[in-house]
Amino acid sequence: MKRIAALLIFLFACTPHVDRARWMHMPQAEKSLYVKSLLGAEKVKAAKGGAPKQYSRTPDEYVKRIDTAYAAGDSRDPAAILGDLRDR
Description:
The protein is mainly alpha-helical. It has one domain. Helices cover 67% and strands 0% of the residues.
């Protein structure tokens, strides 16, 4: 478990900043990987005692929802949109 968490942190740290323009040009597989890294970072925060944020959908469902938000004119970065998609 610790190795997976370390790998996810490493991937997240190495992932370049993704804004709307970059997201729109990313292939589907890269979008999914990016969302997985964001979700992994949230799990690590929760494991360290941070306020847990619940995400019950699959990464691909979040990718679709982020794409939908951009189609509706949202201009925030994907991480901010994902934050609003967490379970309440």
